[in-house]
Each structure stands twice: as structure tokens, then as C-alpha cells.
């Protein structure tokens, strides 16, 4: 009861005494945790460098400007590779994500207790691990190159696409499925007529959305050796060629903006 | 009736998605041509891939038998550092992104403030975490501080944008009712706006915490602290069992966070 | 032609939706199923073509016991039962023609249906049906561009193209305005007469039911309370089915409506 009797007057409070105490304790714990975290970060930081940071930043800036524009002639192939990693990776991921999504959705899975958990496990594990880590792993297994990048992007995207897709499948209108079933259609026909038309817009949206994200991710995959423009970034950084670095960053920025624009346009056209 | 006689006996075809025939064929051909070109320019060393299958098998087997023990110290330190970076950067990022979100909502902020806040968001979103981390490591030196700053910066772009969109789509009437009572600006925000967007803010914060943890796992690759460095070393030395152990820990923590965020979001809404 | 014997449906929650229902529908009879919400009307209809699996009892379509059939044999029998739904249940992102042709899914193979290569006779029949309900010019429109009444007409075509012996009709007028409701009911009953189909029409609106059907079944708490001619629906009967209420107005209105029509 948030109304309290105070010296004969009725005082309204938002919370009861217990509640407000709990509230304060929670805040206190939160602040303490944050303080501890900050102290840990601070302890492993060389503060001398940090105080020196403005000078270093300024130094890098003067070296990096102006960008070395003529270097762009050497970036054609890496940009093409980056585009391929993103696009082929997305296509491969979608091919694998569709069956997994159908196995994971409650209303289409063949078995709730065996197949569905396996499908969910695939979704969670591919989703939790960043594409850079997948790339590291694949480079160790199949060697550096664009191919490793494509596979890394594909694996990382499976979980993402399958999750969004199976949520879309679970949200479909069941009466439409029922109506198709009632005509005597087979299992696959029900799928093709009752379910697929309903999830097609979601599918297209997911594909374009993920392609946009994959363009971003594939620009940096080269840092670990998986091809694309990140490779140039990494080698320029290694030799401290800052004018090249700034040009590459500008190119990446442009790629990100263009891909976002394209995906927004395509999504607009679909929906 | 004549209409029917005309229709009967005529074959029927589904009307195509793209009406103009030449455009439809151009799109199909263009796509196929792109696929062929892309496939041809990827140089796949199949011999190397075939060789790799054996290592791939070893790696998958390593998942069945992960080695937590031999580098337990490194794993433990790396994980703690990742978690610390995650928590600290999420807190700072959220605290900073709230005012920016208010500024980036057109129905609250005046135009100049709106433009400034929107450009902050645009810059933060356009720059990849890993690239920001590289620059910050170059400026601030190796260690978790660079990682912490990177994640805070990324959080601002993510959270402010989504929160601002939520504020813009809130129920105008409720907010106006508070304004009508003669509330000051801060009171108006507190009573008219905050209750409407609070559930979403909490949901998004937890979601971002989850993302920050995942990202913190790779920042170590460029020297910005966290578990990534340990993982990188494990791969370099072909210590698949240790790498598998680290990946398993990451997966488990991400799953736990997702489960937790599910519960919290349900309780808040 | 259709015979239900001691049909029981108990849901997992323990709700007994149908308590040993016996029913016999002769060839060509149009029958209305009335009763309050939750009386088990929808369940009864869905138990016949096994969209809902009955708990016990039998459903005979001709000589075949539907409840004992395997999935593939059931699919063949489902072709003989056309179903029309509340809220139309058209696949909204497909065209009107595809929706009508989907009634033939039980007859064509997967790849033919997937590639939309239906036999010419099916396409002709679809055009004939669409023309019969006045929608031939809409064939290539998407289903979600149609109005409620038009959608239900497409739903009727989809059921009829199956070439059924029996129509299962679930609340065909629930989301339509009164005028369209009457047109749709009239259309269904006319088509049944033309083709000699039996039909079970599950309907809320007692007045509408009385206007069009030859026989009325009253269902209450999953049991048959009334079975007879539409004229037999006296206030007392309606009270046993729906509970206490002033029924005179409902019934009188029907007479007036008839006079007007």
C-alpha cells in the first residue's frame, strides 16, 4: 500500500518501504559492479599512452590526410571479391537456412522433441559466433582466401536467417493452411500453396537485410586473411601506410552506405 | 456469356512477378552472368580444401572433447575481461545514448539538435566495430580500454537509433495530456515520454548487452582486449581442443544471455 | 450419404466438444447447424474431414469410414468434401485463379501444381465457375485485392472445383454485411441444388438459416438438441438451444424478410 500514515497525514508514495529499499539495493549493486569493471579496465590500461592520445590522434590524422587517391586503381579486384563474398555467402546461407527454418518452426517441424532442438542448436551456435571467428577457423582448416570468406559468411548467416524465417513461419495464418489441407492436398502441396506464399515477403526481406549486413562484415574479413578489401587494409596498416588506410576506410564507408541504400530500395519494392 | 466462351479453352498462365518481359529476362540473365563471373574469379584450391577436410574433422571431434584445462588461466582471464568490457561499455553506451535518442526524435527535439544527433548516429553506425577498434588501439594502445570505447561507441549508434524511432512512434495523445497539465520539459519527458518507451529501452539494452558480448569476443583479434586474443593464439597453434572449449563457453554465455533477456523482456512488457 | 456414429471429440484440455453425436445426411440435402458459440459446431465440421482428429466414433462417407483411413487414403476422400471457411481462408498472396485451382490439388501431382501446369479441363472449369459467381474478369487479381463478398465467392469456387459430393460450410457469412450474407447463402444453396450436393452449413444467424435450408440441427454443449424442419424452430426450441431470451422478434423478422424478398 503506497499510502502511508505520517503524523496523522496521508502521504502518497510511489513505492512501499520494502520496495524502495529493494530498488536502492539494486541500484547500489549496479553501481558497484560498474565501478569494479571500470577499475579492472583502468588497471590494465597504460594511462601514459592515454594522456598522450590526443597528440597521437593528431599525428595519425596529419599522416592519413590527404588519402592516396591513385591507390584506388589497385582496389578494383578486392572490392569485387568483397561483393562476391557477401553475395555468394548470403545465397549459400539462404539455401541452408530454409530447410532448417522449416525444421525449427513449431507448426512445420516433423518432430518436436528430436528434430526441433537440433535445428535450434544449429541456429544458436552459428548465430553466436562472429563471422571473423568463423573465418579464423576456416582459414586454419581450408587455407586463406576468398573461399574461406564465403563459407564463413554463409555459416554465420544461417542462424540469423533461419531464426527470422522460422519466426515468420510460426506467425502464418493457419486457416489458409487448413483450407489447402481440406482440398486433399499432399504435405508438399500444402507447403507450396499454404505456407510458402505467406512467408515469401518475409523471406525476401530477410535475404536483402542479411546481404546488407554481410557487405559490412565481408569488408573486414580480410583482416584475418579471408579475402576482400580487408586484406589491403591489413597490409596497409602493417606498413603504417596511413594515406592508403584512409582511402580504404572511405571506400568501405561508401560500400556500406551504398549497400544500405540498395537494401532499403529493394525492401521498399517488395513490401 | 460471350466472355466465358472466349475464356474457355484458353490456356492459363500465372501472371509473372515482373510484368515487362525484357526486364524479367534481363534480370534473370544478369543474375546468372553475375554468378558465373563470381564463381570464376574465386580461386579455390581444391587440393588444399581436400587436405583441410581432415583438419575439419579433427576440429569437429574437438567439440566432442574440448580442452578447458590446459589453458584454463588464459581462458578465464580472457572471459572475465570480455565480460567486464561488455558490462562497462553497455552501461556507458546506454547512459550516453538516452540523451542522443531524445535529441534524434523529431517530435521532441528542435531541428539543429535533431541534425547533430542524427549525424552522430549515422557515423557510429557506418563505422564497423573492428575498424573503430583498430583506430582506437592505434591511438590508446593495446588493452581493454580501446575495446571498451569501441563497444560504447557502437552501442550509442545502435541504441539511439532504435530508441529515437520508438519515441517518434509513441502515442502523441498521452504525451500531450501531460503537457496540457502545465508540466516543465523535464517533467514532460519523465511523465509523458518515459513510461511509453521504458519497456522498449530495457529490451533493447539487454539485446545490446548480448551483441556487445559477442563483439567483445573478436576485439582481441586486433589487440583491444577480451577472449579474442586467446582464441586467435589457439587457432594459430592448431590447438583445436582449446579453441573448441572457448567457442563452447561463448555459445553457452550467449544462450544464457538470450534466455535471460527473454525472461526480462516478458516481465517488463 | 454422410453418416456420423457416436462421434466424440475430447480436447487435450479435457473439454468435451462433441458428446456422441449421431447424424444422417441423405444425398442432396442442405442442412444448417445452429447453436451458441462453443457448442461444437466448428469441431463437428472439422471432425468430418479430419482437420480435427475425432477421439472416437465413426464418420461414413458413402461406405467408407473416414476415421479409419490412412493419411493418403484420407486425402483421396477429402477431394469429395469441399470446404468453405469463415473469413474465406484464401491464400491471400496468390491470384484468384490460383486459389480456385488449388481446389484441384488433390487430383494433380506436386510438380504440376508447383509449376502451375494444370490440365486444360481444370482451367476451363475454373473459368466456368468464376463466371457463374460473376468473377471471371478478376481471375488474375490477387486475392487480397478483393472485397469480402468476392473473396467468399472465390472460396465457393475453390470448394466446387473439387467436384465434391458434400460441402462443409463453416460460418460462411460471419464477416459479411447482411445483404452480402444473404447473397452468399443464396448462392451456396442454388449451387447445391444445381449440382445435387449435400451441405452442412454451420451458421450463427438463425433467421438466415431458416430462410434457405431444408433441415436444421441444433447443437448445445456438443449434443444434438433439435433436429427437424426450419418451421419447427419455436421459441421453446430456441430456448433449449441458446438459453432464455425473447425469441418472438427473431422469428417474426424472418417472416417479414420473406415477405419483402
TrEMBL record, chain A:
Its main location: membrane. Residues 79-263 form the ABC transmembrane type-1 domain. Keywords: Cell membrane, Membrane, Transmembrane, Transmembrane helix, Transport. Pfam families: BPD_transp_1. It is found in: Cell membrane. One of its GO terms (molecular function) is ABC-type phosphonate transporter activity. It comes from the Bacteria. The chain crosses the membrane at residues 21-41, 85-105, 132-155, 190-209, 221-241, 247-264. The keyword Transmembrane helix applies. InterPro entries: MetI-like, MetI-like_sf, PhnE/PtxC. One of its GO terms (cellular component) is plasma membrane. The keyword rRNA processing does not apply. SUPFAM superfamilies: MetI-like. Belongs to the binding-protein-dependent transport system permease family. This is Phosphonate ABC transporter, permease protein PhnE. It comes from Meridianimarinicoccus aquatilis.
From TrEMBL, chain B:
Its main location: membrane. One of its GO terms (cellular component) is plasma membrane. It is found in: Cell membrane. The chain crosses the membrane at residues 21-42, 83-103, 115-139, 241-260. Belongs to the binding-protein-dependent transport system permease family. Keywords: Cell membrane, Membrane, Transmembrane, Transmembrane helix, Transport. CDD domains: TM_PBP2. Residues 79-261 form the ABC transmembrane type-1 domain. The keyword Cell membrane applies. It is a multi-pass membrane protein. Gene3D superfamilies: MetI-like. It holds the Pfam family BPD_transp_1. InterPro entries: MetI-like, MetI-like_sf, PhnE/PtxC. The lineage of its organism: Bacteria, Pseudomonadati, Pseudomonadota, Alphaproteobacteria, Rhodobacterales. GO terms for molecular function: ABC-type phosphonate transporter activity. The keyword Membrane applies. This is Phosphonate ABC transporter, permease protein PhnE.
UniProtKB/TrEMBL annotation, chain C:
Keywords: ATP-binding, Cell membrane, Membrane, Nucleotide-binding, Translocase, Transport. SMART domains: AAA. InterPro entries: AAA+_ATPase, ABC_transporter-like_ATP-bd, ABC_transporter-like_CS, ABC_transpr_PhnC, MetN_ABC_transporter-like, P-loop_NTPase. It holds the Pfam family ABC_tran. Residues 2-246 form the ABC transporter domain. It comes from the Bacteria. SUPFAM superfamilies: P-loop containing nucleoside triphosphate hydrolases. GO terms for molecular function: ABC-type phosphonate transporter activity; ATP binding; ATP hydrolysis activity. GO terms for cellular component: membrane. This is Phosphonate ABC transporter ATP-binding protein.
Amino acid at each position: 500500500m503506497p499510502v502511508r500514515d505520517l503524523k496523522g497525514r496521508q502521504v502518497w508514495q510511489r513505492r512501499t518501504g520494502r520496495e524502495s529499499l529493494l530498488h536502492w539495493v539494486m541500484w547500489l549493486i549496479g553501481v558497484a559492479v560498474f565501478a569494479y569493471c571500470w577499475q579492472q579496465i583502468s588497471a590494465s590500461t597504460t594511462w601514459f599512452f592515454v594522456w598522450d592520445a590526443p597528440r597521437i590522434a593528431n599525428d595519425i590524422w596529419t599522416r592519413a590526410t590527404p588519402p592516396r587517391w591513385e591507390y584506388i586503381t589497385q582496389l578494383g579486384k578486392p572490392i569485387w571479391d568483397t561483393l562476391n563474398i557477401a553475395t555468394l555467402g548470403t545465397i549459400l546461407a539462404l539455401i541452408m537456412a530454409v530447410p532448417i527454418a522449416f525444421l525449427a518452426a513449431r507448426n512445420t517441424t516433423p518432430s518436436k522433441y528430436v528434430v526441433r532442438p537440433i535445428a535450434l542448436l544449429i541456429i544458436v551456435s552459428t548465430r553466436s559466433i562472429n563471422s571473423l571467428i568463423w573465418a579464423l577457423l576456416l582459414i586454419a582448416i581450408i587455407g586463406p582466401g576468398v573461399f574461406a570468406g564465403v563459407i564463413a559468411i554463409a555459416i554465420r548467416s544461417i542462424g540469423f536467417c533461419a531464426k527470422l524465417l522460422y519466426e515468420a513461419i510460426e506467425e502464418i495464418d493457419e486457416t489458409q493452411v487448413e483450407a489447402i489441407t481440406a482440398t486433399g492436398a499432399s504435405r508438399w502441396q500444402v507447403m507450396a500453396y499454404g505456407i510458402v506464399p505467406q512467408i515469401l515477403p518475409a523471406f525476401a526481406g530477410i535475404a536483402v537485410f542479411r546481404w546488407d549486413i554481410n557487405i559490412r562484415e565481408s569488408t573486414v574479413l580480410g583482416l584475418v586473411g579471408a579475402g576482400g578489401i580487408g586484406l589491403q587494409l591489413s597490409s596497409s596498416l602493417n606498413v603504417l601506410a596511413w594515406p592508403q588506410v584512409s582511402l580504404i576506410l572511405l571506400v568501405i564507408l561508401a560500400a556500406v552506405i551504398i549497400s544500405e541504400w540498395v537494401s532499403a530500395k529493394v525492401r521498399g519494392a517488395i513490401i | 456469356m460471350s466472355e466465358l466462351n472466349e475464356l474457355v479453352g484458353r490456356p492459363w498462365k500465372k501472371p509473372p512477378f515482373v510484368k515487362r518481359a525484357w526486364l524479367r529476362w534481363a534480370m534473370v540473365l544478369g543474375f546468372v552472368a553475375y554468378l558465373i563471373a563470381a564463381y570464376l574469379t574465386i580461386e579455390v584450391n581444391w587440393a588444399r580444401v581436400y587436405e583441410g577436410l581432415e583438419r575439419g574433422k579433427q576440429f569437429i571431434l574437438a567439440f566432442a572433447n574440448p580442452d578447458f584445462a590446459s589453458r584454463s588461466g588464459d581462458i578465464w582471464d580472457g572471459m572475465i575481461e570480455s565480460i567486464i568490457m561488455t558490462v562497462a561499455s553497455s552501461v556507458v553506451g546506454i547512459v550516453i545514448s538516452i540523451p542522443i535518442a531524445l535529441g534524434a526524435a523529431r517530435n521532441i527535439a528542435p531541428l539543429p539538435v535533431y541534425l547533430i544527433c542524427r549525424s552522430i548516429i549515422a557515423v557510429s553506425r557506418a563505422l564497423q566495430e573492428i575498424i573503430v577498434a583498430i583506430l582506437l588501439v592505434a591511438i590508446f594502445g593495446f588493452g581493454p580500454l580501446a575495446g571498451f570505447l569501441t563497444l560504447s561507441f557502437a552501442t550509442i549508434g545502435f541504441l539511439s537509433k532504435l530508441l529515437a524511432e520508438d519515441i517518434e512512434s509513441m502515442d502523441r495523445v498521452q504525451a500531450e495530456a501531460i503537457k496540457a497539465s502545465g508540466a516543465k520539459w523535464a517533467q514532460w519527458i519523465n511523465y509523458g515520454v518515459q513510461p511509453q518507451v521504458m519497456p522498449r529501452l530495457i529490451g533493447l539494452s539487454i539485446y545490446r548487452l548480448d551483441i556487445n558480448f559477442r563483439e567483445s569476443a573478436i576485439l582481441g583479434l586486433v589487440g583491444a582486449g577480451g577472449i579474442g586474443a586467446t582464441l586467435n593464439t589457439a587457432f594459430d597453434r592448431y590447438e583445436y581442443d582449446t579453441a573448441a572449449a572457448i567457442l563452447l563457453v561463448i555459445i553457452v554465455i550467449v544462450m544464457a544471455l538470450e534466455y535471460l533477456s527473454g525472461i526480462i523482456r516478458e516481465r517488463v512488457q | 450419404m454422410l453418416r456420423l456414429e457416436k462421434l466424440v471429440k475430447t480436447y487435450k484440455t479435457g473439454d468435451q466438444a462433441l458428446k456422441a453425436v449421431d447424424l444422417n445426411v441423405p444425398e442432396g440435402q442442405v442442412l444448417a447447424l445452429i447453436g451458441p458459440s462453443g457448442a461444437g459446431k466448428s469441431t463437428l465440421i472439422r471432425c468430418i474431414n479430419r482437420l480435427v482428429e475425432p477421439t472416437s466414433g465413426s464418420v461414413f462417407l458413402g461406405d467408407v469410414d473416414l476415421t479409419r483411413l490412412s493419411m493418403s487414403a484420407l486425402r483421396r476422400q477429402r477431394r469429395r468434401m469441399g470446404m468453405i471457411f469463415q473469413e474465406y481462408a484464401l491464400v491471400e498472396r496468390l491470384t484468384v485463379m490460383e486459389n480456385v485451382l488449388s481446389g484441384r490439388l488433390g487430383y494433380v501431382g506436386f510438380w504440376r501444381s508447383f509449376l502451375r501446369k494444370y490440365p486444360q479441363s481444370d482451367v476451363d472449369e475454373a473459368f466456368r465457375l468464376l463466371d457463374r459467381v460473376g468473377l471471371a474478369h478478376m481471375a488474375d487479381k490477387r486475392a487480397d485485392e478483393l472485397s469480402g463478398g468476392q473473396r467468399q465467392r472465390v472460396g465457393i469456387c475453390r470448394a466446387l472445383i473439387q467436384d465434391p459430393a458434400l460441402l462443409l460450410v463453416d460460418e460462411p457469412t460471419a464477416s459479411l454485411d447482411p445483404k452480402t450474407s444473404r447473397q452468399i447463402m443464396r448462392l451456396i444453396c442454388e449451387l447445391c441444388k444445381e449440382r445435387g450436393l449435400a451441405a452442412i452449413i454451420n451458421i450463427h444467424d438463425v433467421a438466415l438459416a431458416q430462410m434457405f435450408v431444408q433441415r436444421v440441427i441444433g447443437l448445445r454443449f456438443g449434443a444434438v438438441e433439435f433436429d427437424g424442419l426450419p418451421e419447427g424452430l419455436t421459441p421453446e426450441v430456441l430456448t433449449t438451444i441458446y438459453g432464455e431470451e425473447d425469441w418472438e422478434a427473431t422469428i417474426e423478422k424472418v417472416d417479414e424478410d420473406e415477405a419483402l424478398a
